[in-house]
Amino acid sequence: MDRRSFLATATGALSIGVAGCLGFEEGRAAGDHDVGMTQVDFRPEELTVDVGTTVEFRNTSSHGHTVTAVDIPEDATYFATGEFDDYEAATEAYESNNGGILTQGQSHEHTFEIPGRYDYVCIPHLASDMRGVVHVEE
Description:
Layout: H1 3-19, E1 34-37, E2 42-43, E3 46-50, E4 53-58, E5 68-71, H2 87-97, E6 107-112, E7 116-121, E8 131-137
Parallel strand pairs: 1-4, 3-8
Antiparallel strand pairs: 1-2, 4-6, 5-7, 7-8
């Protein structure tokens, strides 16, 4: 194989391999209301949606992640992978038995019914500052 053929093949293979890390799945772009995960980031880190929108959080990484709300509007429904009722319960479950972990390819959905700012984190990657925000508008 000559150098040009090798580089063309390698570039194509690299593009396919990186696509999963960037929130692409089987050749299609992630939806407008999807949040993917890299090794230590949510992608996108901030998302703006309308009231009533369902957002899918999909683990597009080979690492385990949680999606755990830390600050949400008053009267909003709490959300966390593992369906915990609050941050303390989610943290305790993760620390005791990896509760709430999404493995590669798994996803979690949440419908945002109250306008406002929703801050969330990945508990296992707090030290790497893995945080995200969903802004919900009327």
